[in-house]
Amino acid sequence: MSRTAIFFATGYEEIEALTVVDILRRAGEEITMVSVTDERSVTSSHGVEVRMDKVLSEMNFDETDVIVLPGGMPGTKNLEACAALMEQVDAFVQAGKTVAAVCAAPSILGHRGHLNGKKACSFPDMESQLEGAEVLREPAVIDGNIITGRGMGAAIPFGLAILEKLQGKEAAEEMAVKIVYK
Length: 182
Prior knowledge:
The protein is of the alpha/beta class. It has one domain (3-171): Class I glutamine amidotransferase (GATase) domain (Rossmann fold, 3-Layer(aba) Sandwich), CATH 3.40.50.880. 34% of the residues lie in helices and 23% in strands. The protein has helices at residues 14-26, 75-80, 83-95, 106-111, 155-167, 169-178, and strands at residues 3-8, 30-35, 41-43, 49-51, 54-55, 66-69, 98-102, 119-120, 134-135, 140-143, 146-149. The strands form 3 sheets. Strands 5-2-1-6-7-11-10 form a 7-stranded mixed β-sheet. It has a two-stranded antiparallel ribbon with strand order 3-4. The chain has a two-stranded parallel ribbon with strand order 8-9. The longest helix is centred in the N-terminal third of the chain and has 13 residues, at 14-26.
């Protein structure tokens, strides 16, 4: 079992964030919802307040295998403005650990140079921000240790792509059947 941390900033897209939480928890993965502020509750771009498991200052990144960045506005900008989180994103990518981002959030990886030579996808309006990437228009893309998703409508394929990376293609296909996705 891998340990995944999904980071919530004010203005996150709730479907993108909570779908990943749901799919991975159903699969038996350990997932921690983390506020990038000192507040235990974080409000989405549509006014949905969700209570977090931890705040950023409580995180032990040495005990974390995967970082997930949901999209949404201004959530994506708020994630990118969090220097402590960005330091960890950089460290994870450099160490070959998995980093996943969906919708607008793959732009963060583009801005930080982590998509150079990679295949990636994002929300259509953010494709120009995927600096150095071969942009695909797929619901979700796995390229090495980077997983990207296109947007809210691709939240399930994005979550399944993370599960595939963690437990294999068969586990992701079985989950798709269980949740009546396919």
